[in-house]
Design brief:
- By secondary structure, the protein is of the alpha/beta class.
- Helices cover 38% and strands 18% of the residues.
- It is built from 7 helices and 7 strands, in the order βαβαβαβαβααββα.
- It has helices at residues 10-18, 31-40, 50-53, 69-80, 103-106, 112-117, 135-145, and strands at 2-5, 22-25, 44-47, 61-63, 99-101, 121-124, 129-132.
- A 4-stranded parallel beta sheet has the order 2-1-3-4, with helices on both faces.
- α1 packs across α4 (69-80).
- The radius of gyration is 16 Å and the shape is elongated.
Length: 146
Amino acid sequence: MKFIADVMLGKLAKRLRLLGFDVLYDPACEDNEVLHLALNQDRVILTRDTGLASRPLAHNHIMIVSDLVDEQLHQVLEAFSPRDDGSLTRCSVCNEPLSVLDRRDARDLVPDHVYATATGFWYCARCEKAYWKGSHVNNMAGIRKK
């Protein structure tokens, strides 16, 4: 499942990326560009903009109803009922697929307490950011199961 989030849904885009979804998000994207990318890349539009949602070319969209990101996330997950846990497969910042990071290579990229307790690490080559399964991932998994 691939999404494109409008300017009002940056936090939702980040959360969905952490769960492994491919989500385009650029706050500078105008409505016409959102429509163009959604149609050309077969993406579902995530929006809170009734004007965008009502346009004929925006037929494949979810109108996000809540202001609260946890409720927004729950709405999207309910709509698409994902079957597998794709968490930590995409960078939450740039949407790039993550690669597995060897534990030794993670040593200088993560806090000491994380290095001591985490069992697996992932890396974004574009952002040079390290990821691990911390409480934030477990909390989102709980939202996913509601």
